[in-house]
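INFO  loader      accepted 1 record
INFO  loader      residues=81
INFO  predictor   begin
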Amino acid sequence: MLDILKFFSTEIKDKILEQNLEGLEEIRIRAFRPIILKSSNREIILNYKPMQKEILQTLQLLCDNSIYSFQNQICNRIYNC
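INFO  predictor   done
INFO  writer      dumping tokens
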């Protein structure tokens, strides 16, 4: 689980690491909304609302600083959900 945290902005990663990550299955981040950590039997709502720049930084880390090269994959995933 800790391997995935390398793709989050420093601020978001620090807030997530303050929590017990045992059994963590999902991390929800949205700009100006609390971060939500979900496991099979619990949900933790963090008292931290990331800024839009932190979300963009996380997206850039996920796409290896080339959002354009992942644009089609991102759009296809969004519309196929």
